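Chapter review: from sequence to fold.
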Amino acid sequence: MRSRLATRSTRSTRLVLTAVAAAALATTAATTAAGTALAVGGQSKAPVEQVCGSTDLTFKVTEKTQAGGYLLVTAKAKPGITCYLEGTIPAAAFGSHSDRQVAPIEQAVTDTIKLSGSTAAYAGINPKSTNGDFGAEFDQMVIAVAGDEAGAISVRLPSTTLVDKPLSTNWHADPADAVPVG
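The token string follows.
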């Protein structure tokens, strides 16, 4: 009789421990998915820092004359949002042809930028990396955070721009680092 009770007690303990572990994993998963940590009683603690998505940002494009001319893209977090923008190239395109998709100039990922309030990130896009007068003219481009192409936003260019095999820098905290040279 004692052996059966001992076995049941051990099984009960294992079940309880398994249930506690499952609840801890579920809370961790919910915390990660929701972006907030839950406290006792279901109250939220401070939000967990998030990676910037395309819809978290506003984009502005200006023309610059350095390096033969380029487009400077400025990204800022929308009011009330604090997020981190990885130092990779923006997902940008002028139309759907493969020669109009932005390719990287830089070979490595740069620093991640914390965006909030007036803090901005900058990427420089050379719209025409080829010689000659070939290409197509565009008055807008589509831009997104790399990895969040589903949230792409159409942005009007300052003027009609000739595009052929465009190249982009990574996102940078300093606009001087976003001059596309290469």
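Two observations follow directly from the output. The longest strand covers residues 153-163. Residues 1-45 have pLDDT under 50 and may be disordered.
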